Amino acid sequence: MTSPTAVVLPGTASDEVFVRSVFARPLAAAGLALVAPESRSVDEHFAALDAAYDGNPLVVGGVSLGAHIAARWAVRNPTRCAGVLAALPAWTGRSDGAPAALAASVSATTVEREGLHAAVGDVDGWVGAELRRAWPRYGSALPDVLREAAGSEAPTVEELRRLDVPVGVAACTDDPVHPFEVARRWVSALPRAALRTTTLAEMGADREALGRAALDALLNA
Fold first, then answer.
1. Number of C-beta neighbours around residue 185 at 10 A
2. Which residues of the chain have pLDDT under 50?
3. What's the pLDDT at 1?
4. SUPFAM superfamilies attached here (predicted)?
5. Rounded Cα distance, 208 and 194, in Å
């Protein structure tokens, strides 16, 4: 019997390598086969979800921007979706004033004017190391990718209210870029959702902490 498929998208200027580090083992332990697309832009992320559908409902998910796109796809394709893994949602609806959107916009300008090293040089710890690993993979497209993400829309509260599939939301309580209040707002709007938390500090030692939190939330939704 084929394992149910979970298609999980990366966050802004992140990649499939990070997705696998977070989700591969937790999903495998639950009997889900992970698909981590190599898509980069918003349109490519939506296309990857469309391409993954083979007639059997998918679990879809993502981190930050990836969570936004997965949830929006699920709203548009309710019969194709079995559940959603939403890790670190960054805003609801329009991105105006959201910390993650502001950070992406500033980073895009810094990369253009001063180079990639200047944009990530002051970011400490594992987050900085992750940016220095993933961002060079985007090459000259990086500023455009960052700006596209900053201007993209997350599902609105009204759309979340229509999303009648189980949704597992995971948040880090010490992450100012992805405020915990946004995760709580998503869960309050969703008809069938649960919230689990971890911390950036815990992820520094164990990336899978975020994947386990999202999966546990989904199983309890």
1. 17
2. 1
3. 44
4. alpha/beta-Hydrolases
5. 18
N- to C-terminal Cα distance for the chain? Answer: 25
- pLDDT value at residue 132: 94
Q: How far apart are CA 59 and CA 73, in angstroms?
A: 11
Cα 193 to chain centroid, rounded:
16
The two structure tokens encoding residue 163: 């999303």
∠ at Cα 194 (193, 199), nearest 5°?
A: 135
Are residue 63 and residue 160 in the same domain, yes or no?
yes
Asked if 91 and 118 sit in the same domain, the reply is no
- Is residue 20 domain-shared with residue 129, that is, in the same domain? no
- 19, containing H or E segment: helix 16-29
Count of the separate structural domains present in the chain: 2
pLDDT of residue 122: 84
CA angle at 203 for the pair 200 and 204, rounded to the nearest 5°: 90
Q: How many CA atoms lie within 13 A of 52 on its CB side?
A: 29
Do residues 85 and 168 touch, judged by C-beta distance below 8 A?
yes
* 110, 89: one domain: no
Tokens of 37: 């697309």
pLDDT in tens, 156-203: 999 999 999 999 999 999 999 999 999 999 999 999 999 999 999 999
Same domain, 81 and 108: no
Please give the biggest Cα pair distance in the chain.
Answer: 53
Of 221, 214, 220, 217, which Cα lies nearest the Cα of 67?
214
